[in-house]
């Protein structure tokens, strides 16, 4: 893939936490509309990669290029304004506020004339939320809270969404609900990086797969090339790689 075609290009990325090297020479390239699954065991560097691309963790080396611009040293607020939205595990909502109030706070980043329409569109994407627009978000189910987090992230029309372990702690039925919502975004052409504990779901969903091990890229390719042996080697024998 040529640089002109790439939406996101991560080249030889290195990240340090004090003396420890958390990422070593990690490279990744994405085109607009791609969905990339980043997999790995705990401590492999998945969230560090997500947070560094998002501007929340500084890079110690390498480059991050987005939409043709070098964003390696950009602060997080500038990265977000340029179209990269990071959705962390833990949902990132305000539980004391209603669904509509949560979405309205995210809409404040938009010009005033666009806010009403953006809020209506955010609720249209997730009918479950529209039905509970006046409910305090702390009373929503885990799956609904994740949808609200997604809705808040989508309201500014991001170019790239980075979803970090959004299914963490959810019951299987709620995981299905979440992936249905992500599937609608994929069908609409939204570019995504997903970091996911349900490996088989991620492999079915993604166009590309990157497996991290000890802060390095251990394997990279099409999801159907990530066979059982590769996944067991880098994710552990107990990894959820076969199905529900």
Summarize the structure.
The protein is 35% helix and 25% strand.
Helix/strand layout:
Blueprint: E1 8-17, E2 20-30, E3 35-40, H1 46-53, E4 61-66, E5 69-70, H2 76-81, E6 84-87, H3 99-107, H4 112-125, H5 127-130, H6 142-154, E7 160-164, H7 172-187, E8 191-195, H8 199-205, E9 208-213, E10 216-221, H9 228-235
Parallel strand pairs: 3-8, 3-9, 6-7, 7-8
Antiparallel strand pairs: 1-2, 1-4, 4-5, 9-10
> Which percent bin holds the helix content?
25-40%
Summarize the helix and strand pattern as letters. Answer: EEEHEEHEHHHHEHEHEEH
Q: Provide mean pLDDT, rounded.
A: 87
- The count of DSSP E runs of length 2 or more, i.e. the number of strands, is 10
Strand content is: 25-35%
Estimate the global geometry from the Cα principal axes: globular
Count helical runs: 9
> Strand order across the biggest sheet?
6-7-8-3-9-10
Radius of gyration: 18 Å
* Helix/strand structural class: alpha/beta
Low-confidence stretches: none
Largest sheet: 6 strands, mixed
What's the N-to-C terminus distance? Answer: 34 Å
């Amino acid at each position: 893939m040529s640089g002109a075609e790439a939406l996101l290009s991560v080249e030889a990325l290195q990240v340090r936490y004090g003396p420890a090297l958390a990422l070593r020479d990690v490279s990744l390239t994405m085109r607009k509309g791609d969905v990339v699954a980043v997999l790995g065991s705990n401590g492999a560097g998945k969230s560090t990669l997500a947070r560094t691309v998002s501007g929340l963790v500084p890079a110690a080396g390498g480059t991050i290029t987005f939409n043709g611009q070098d964003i390696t040293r950009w602060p997080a607020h500038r990265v977000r304004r340029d179209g990269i939205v990071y959705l962390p595990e833990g949902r990132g909502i305000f539980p004391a506020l209603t669904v509509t109030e949560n979405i309205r706070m995210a809409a404040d980043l938009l010009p005033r004339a666009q806010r009403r329409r953006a809020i209506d569109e955010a609720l249209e994407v997730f009918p479950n939320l529209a039905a509970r627009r006046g409910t305090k978000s702390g009373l929503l189910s885990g799956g609904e809270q994740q949808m609200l987090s997604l809705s808040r992230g989508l309201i500014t029309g991001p170019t790239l969404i980075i979803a970090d372990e959004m299914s963490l702690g959810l019951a299987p039925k709620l995981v299905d609900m979440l992936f249905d919502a992500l599937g609608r975004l994929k069908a609409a052409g939204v570019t995504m990086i997903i970091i996911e504990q349900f490996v088989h779901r991620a492999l079915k969903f993604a166009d590309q797969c990157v497996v991290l091990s000890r802060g390095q890229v251990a394997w990279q390719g099409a999801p159907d090339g990530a066979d059982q042996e590769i996944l067991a080697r880098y994710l552990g024998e107990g990894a959820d790689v076969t199905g529900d």
